[in-house]
Amino acid sequence: MHRRRRTAFVLSAAIVAAAPLLTACGSEAHPGAAAVVGGQRITVAQLEGRVNEVRSAQRAVTKDEAQYEQAIAKSGSLTRDTLHSMVLDHVLDRAAKDAHVSVTRKDVQQLRGSLEQQAGGAHGLETVWLQQYGVAPSRLDENLRTEIEAQKVAASLGADMNTAEGKATFWKAMSQASKELRIDLNPRYGAWDVEKSGRVDAKTPWLREVTPAETPQSA
């Protein structure tokens, strides 16, 4: 029979409600930049490249034009979601640096192997991440690295993400990292505010509970 398996990630959707404000200034002019994080530019061209990777992957897995148009409709906020995820990844990297934690290639391989087993193989896992989170197959390992990094940061802080206190501890560290990076987001892509931006929360795998595809199980 088929049985749905669920992998409950440390940073599940429950933490979103308790996430404090991660603010960004927007007063500086940065021509050609979608955002500036820690003095480093995320250019509009880089952002568009990421979005095109997802669109190309979506087209490759759809059978006809109607299905492709449906996929686009379901991910209409892809550009903004992608930029917010790119910025949030930088914030997490800074929080990890502050916490003196790192992620190895072996860590990523082990997590990927476990998830592939649950999803019925590499293709199944890639499809889940593409359809649910807008992550292109070529970015999957990078995304899993972020998931592990988030778990390690929470662990280093002694933050139990199943409790309000643990969530507050984690987001306090993220807020501090955000302030250190002095994030400047191009207003056309919205404001840098995790508490108010549902798009960030809904489209970032390490911020929610992930449900891989159903896998065949013997009765």
From TrEMBL:
Keywords from the UniProt entry: Signal
UniProt keyword Transport, yes or no: no
Gene3D superfamilies in alphabetical order: Porin chaperone SurA, peptide-binding domain
InterPro entries: Trigger_fact/SurA_dom_sf (IPR027304)
Domain of life where this protein originates: Bacteria
Annotated SUPFAM superfamilies: Triger factor/SurA peptide-binding domain-like (SSF109998)
N-terminal signal peptide: 1-29
Name of the protein this chain belongs to: SurA N-terminal domain-containing protein
Native species: Streptomyces kaempferi
